[in-house]
Amino acid sequence: MINQFKTPKDKVIILINFVYILNTMINENSMKKKPSGADEVFPIVVYAILKSGVSKLKSNMKYIKSFRHFSRLESAEEYYFTTISSAIEFIEKLKLEHLAHIEHKEFLRLCDEQDKKIDQEAIKPYLKSNFQ
Amino acid sequence: MLFTFRLFFSTHEQKLEDFEFDRALKRYNFVTLKHMEVDESSVDNDYLEVAINSKL
Question: Cα separation of A45 and A28, whole Å?
Fold first, then answer.
């Protein structure tokens, strides 16, 4: 979705809405106990980005940084933007130590499985065009 | 000339960064809320689905 919009403002709005939905969810569900902080929001943002499978997110972030005037990236906008930037960095540097309730062997097995799937998907279009 | 070279390499560098990040997203797709140590009482599946399906 973010790739369909051209202006940095539109792209920022999409990022804000994404984190806002997750923030609202946590606030509504933990209202009786305590107000939510970045500690609660961050892991869910990471999880949601991983599951969304959005493409070219890094380019979009760079584009926003380059073309959105810094005076417009303030308060809530800045907070949500920083949250997503941190989540991206977390995903890039993700290791076994960053995850809980998973063993070394299981982690390696799941990574291998995913790598095979990715490779097979990458080969598919070439196989189709060359062997049909 | 120099500008053209810089432009050429910066776009390729960007493409590579995107490729690597997109691959990382697919690679770690197995991660669950439990792995992220999320308090599941604060999670509402409807909200989560809306956020995930919004595809950013």
Answer: 16
- Mutation pick from B23, B34, B42 vs chain A, by most beta carbons of A within 10 Å, is B42
pLDDT of chain A, 132 residues: tens digit per residue:
888 999 999 999 999 999 999 999 988 887 556 667 888 899 999 999 999 989 999 999 999 999 988 888 788 889 999 999 999 999 999 999 999 999 999 999 999 999 999 999 888 878 777 766
Model pTM score: 0.88
Protein fold of A2-94: Glutathione S-transferase Yfyf (Class Pi); Chain A, domain 2 (1.20.1050)
Query: Hey, which residues 5-24 in chain B have their CB within 8 Å of chain A?
Result: 14, 17-18, 20-24
Contact status, residue A56 vs residue B22, Cβ threshold 8 Å: yes
| Domain-wise residue ranges, chain B | 2-53
Q: Across the interface, which of B20, B41, B56 has its CB nearest the CB of A29?
A: B41
Alpha-carbon distance of A21 to A18, in angstroms, equals 6
Q: Are A86 and A94 in contact (CB under 8 A)?
A: no
- Which residues of A, range 81-120, sit inside 8 Å of B by Cβ? 88, 91-92, 94, 99-102, 110-111, 113-115, 117-118
